[in-house]
Each structure stands twice: as C-alpha cells, then as structure tokens.
Design brief:
about 210 residues; alpha+beta; 6 helices; 7 strands; elongated; disordered N terminus
Length: about 210
C-alpha cells in the first residue's frame, strides 16, 4: 500500500513539474520567431505554430483566440492531455478574392480557347451565373467550387498569374480574360470582391500528455 501511494506521488510530481515547465516556457516565448525555435528544439507532432485567419477559421476555438491580445493564453484541460495556446503575433493583411474559369492551353488551340471564352462571357452577360459556368467549363478541381478562389494574398499565386490579374485595376463584377501562355494557362476572371484587410494571428500550440 505504501509502495503504491509512493508511486502515485512520484507520477503526480513529474506531471506537475512538466506542466510547470510548459507554463514557464510559454511565459518566455513572446514572438513568432521564438515559437519556431522552440518547436525545433522541442519536437512533437502535436506541438505546432498555427496561423488563424478571421475569414477562413470560424470555429469556437478560433473565435476565442481572436479575442486575446498578443501574449494571451488559453488552456484546454482534457481527460488525457492538456493543450496550451498562446497568441504570439497579430497582424492584418490585404487579401483579394475572385472567381475564375480555367482553360488548358495544352488541350485546345488558342483560337478555340478565345472562341470558347467569348461564348462563356456572352452567356454570363445574358444572365448565366458565373458559378454555373465555372462548373460547366472550368478544367481544374476548383470548378466544383464554382470557380471561387476564396480569400488569398497576391503573393500566394504564381508570379505570372499575379502580374496578369493585378497588372491593371478592375472594378467590382468586372469580367475579363487573362493569358499566361508560358504555362498554357488561359482564364476568364470575375472580380467578386473588393480587397479586404483580414486579421490573422499566429498561435503556438503545445500539448502535454497526462498519461
């Protein structure tokens, strides 16, 4: 009985010390760069640095984290593990959003592509919804989403696509064509949204097992 009680005491002591160590680490870590270094020296598949985007992440957890300031912490105490979250950075970035129909230049001649694009644009101006046309004509997986690219940063796209799409200003609901012949990419683009500043937070997640 005494041995069993001593064993339970020792396990509890190790667990408390581990918890205290994590809490001390979180107090010291203040920036995204420090969090990245910490993850490299404390390797675990469960520990990670997560970027939450206010438009893309709508979970209860994300909403709670967005309410915190830089340095703010949240702890989820589960039955088998304890998860710590700390906000190490908070920024606003300028995002774009549009929808597109992609036509593969390796499968069609340019003359055929231009004829098809004229047909698509005419159908749009005659009242056909763009998402319907994208599902019908677009030649990539995004057709299933009606061509909606979602919110994205310009620099996340291919340089040639970025230069062609944003090389000149377009009004909301403008429909226009874009060619990237070096890649055999040809598009019909619909500007669906104005640029938008979106809040993002970098969150360090550390998981401690209770087992």
């Amino acid at each position: 009985m005494l041995k069993k009680s001593l064993l339970i005491f020792l396990i509890s002591t190790v667990f408390v010390n581990a918890q205290t160590s994590v809490e001390k680490d979180l107090e010291i870590l203040e920036t995204t760069e420090q969090a990245e270094i910490y993850l490299k020296t404390n390797k675990s598949k469960k520990n990670k640095l997560i970027t939450f985007n206010e438009e893309k992440h709508k979970t209860i957890l994300a909403k709670e984290l967005f309410k915190l300031g830089i340095g703010g912490k949240k702890v989820n105490d589960g039955e088998f593990e304890k998860t710590y979250y700390k906000v190490v950075n908070k920024t606003k970035n300028n995002y774009e959003r549009l929808s597109y129909i992609y036509l593969d230049g390796s499968k069609y001649k340019l003359e055929e592509i231009n004829t098809l694009r004229d047909k698509i644009i005419a159908k749009y101006h005659n009242g056909a919804p763009f998402d319907f046309l994208a599902k019908q004509y677009s030649m990539d997986a995004n057709a299933k989403k009606g061509g909606d690219l979602g919110w994205f940063l310009k620099e996340e796209t291919h340089p040639a696509f970025e230069a062609n799409v944003f090389g000149e200003p377009h009004e909301l609901n403008d429909i226009f064509t874009v060619d990237v012949p070096s890649e055999n990419w040809y598009y019909v683009i619909l500007k669906t949204h104005e640029p938008k500043e979106i809040l993002e937070i970098d969150v360090l997640k550390i998981v401690e097992s209770k087992l």
